[in-house]
Amino acid sequence: MSESAYTQLLDLAAGLFLLAAVFVLWRRELTAIVRIFALQGVALFAIAALLGVHEERWDLLAVAAGIGALRAGVLPHLMRRALAASGETRETQPLVNVAASLLTAAALTLLAYAVSRPLVELDPSPATRALPVGLAVVLIGFFTLVTRRRALSQVVGFLLLDNGITAVAFLAASGVPLIVELGVSFDVLLAVLVLQILTTRMRAAFGRTDIDDLRELRD
Amino acid sequence: MNAVGTAAVAAQVVLVTAGAPLLTGLMRQVRARMEGRAGAGIGQPWRDFRKLLRKEPITPVGTGPAFRTAPLLLVATAAVIAALVPLASTATPVSRNADLIVVVALLALGTVALALAGLDTGTAFGGMGASREMTVIALVEPTILLAVFALSIPAGTTNLPAIIAGRIHDPARLASPAGLLAAVALAVVTLAETGRLPVDNPSTHLELTMIHEAMILEYAGPDLALVELGAQMRLTVLLGLLASLFAPWGIATSASVAAVVLAFVLFAVKVALLGAALAAAEVFWAKLRLFRVPELLAGSFLLALLAVTASYFLTGE
């Protein structure tokens, strides 16, 4: 693969990755949010695979395949099941309205670019130049986590955060060691499974999954 | 070079003016066919235009110069834009003045003239339409400027022919993330600026939803004909601008006659295809609630901003 084609494809994948995070903020239908999240998993797979091919590290390709299967396949499938069980279709009342959260996402992206400038200047290459994209996704994921009320969109926010962290790891250091990546992936999978059970329990207790209902701690 | 260039500019203005009603007719025809109606034919907007021109000009009592000059300003700005934008040739005598910011400002001038005319009539509908139009334009304008900025970074200039010539010679710019994001942002903004679905419904007279129609409710006769022609020309020019920026193949960069003629044919085909696609898409779209429109426009603003950041940071220039 030639250098310019690699840069172009990497930029395209990074752009798609960021765009998916933005669309999660934009859309209200929970099924659409899950679908966009799966798309983001594909973009993350593309980033990792491109880095692996470019640096000719075939273990990276294996990690990329694992990440793709988990984030574009297993996690969306689990979320879809939770969604079907809960019967909710829309994120009705985010704490910050959609137009304002889109503008906040714009500000967060600029913040990510400003913060990561010194990091990029250490070693300017196509991969590190896309580093701010990963950081922006981390910030947007955190924002989603804070402002959304439905349990499922909070799960997606958490997963966006994690996707962003993984992307930063790939872009900055061509990925973490395999064992760490495995640990993180199982962690995420477990978190989603726990949250799925939590959603079911919440629905049984309150009839909906509005996080605001969880005010008191009990044994 | 000058003779061919001048002829190309004149031909652009004539083609846009004559073709704009035909484009609207084509879009209505596509829509009618897809909805199972026979449709009035592609020439219907021209027949309407002729009928309106023959009528006696009437202005409502109490209206001032803003009401009377708005139709002329609308058509004049659209014609100037049609001359400036390199729809078919980048080597024209006006190409050095064809700055994208000038084009955006001219578009805004036409919009503001029409909004002032709506206020001038003093009716409830006129004021309502003007206030809505200003809400939309306040969000549209920064988006266009940002998208333009994103496109001008690789070219190093905001001169339109230079941007388009750069994109012809370096097609990789078309598929870059910045280019794609700017394309989507500009497409959304074009829908808002020309009052198409899902922002405004061009074929409604329902008072609760209309924006553009509310402002021109008091016009009659030749003035109405001019307003409608102006709106149609703006749609044609904006679709042409989109086609030139994001599908620049075939635009003449030299002053050869054959290239310019081919470019005109391609321009007509591209705009007709874009218009037909838009009309076909509109069949499946519903109009957004007015309170949802800022959401859509904020989204396209964000896309434009991402386009700027992508083209500035990813290329590392």
What does this structure look like?
The complex is a heterodimer of chains A (219) and B (317). Chain A has one domain. Chain A is built from 8 helices and no strands. The longest helix of chain A is centred in the first third of the chain and has 29 residues, at 58-86. In chain A, helix 2 runs antiparallel to helix 3, helix 2 (30-55) packs parallel to helix 7 (151-173) and helix 7 (151-173) packs antiparallel against helix 8 (178-206). Chain A is mainly alpha-helical. With 317 residues, chain B is mainly alpha-helical. Chain B has one domain. Chain B is 70% helix and 0% strand. Chain B has 11 helices and no strands. In chain B, helix 2 packs antiparallel against helix 9 and helix 9 (221-246) packs across helix 10 (257-284). The longest helix of chain B is centred in the N-terminal third of the chain and has 33 residues, at 2-34. The chains are: A mainly alpha (219), B mainly alpha (317). The interface between A and B is medium-sized, with 27 and 21 residues.
Query: What's the helix count of chain B?
Result: 11
Distance between the termini of chain B: 35 Å
Query: Count of helices of chain A?
Result: 8
Structural class of chain A: mainly alpha
Number of strands of chain A: 0
The biggest chain-chain interface is: A-B, 27 and 21 residues
Number of domains of chain A: 1
Helix content bin of chain B: over 70%
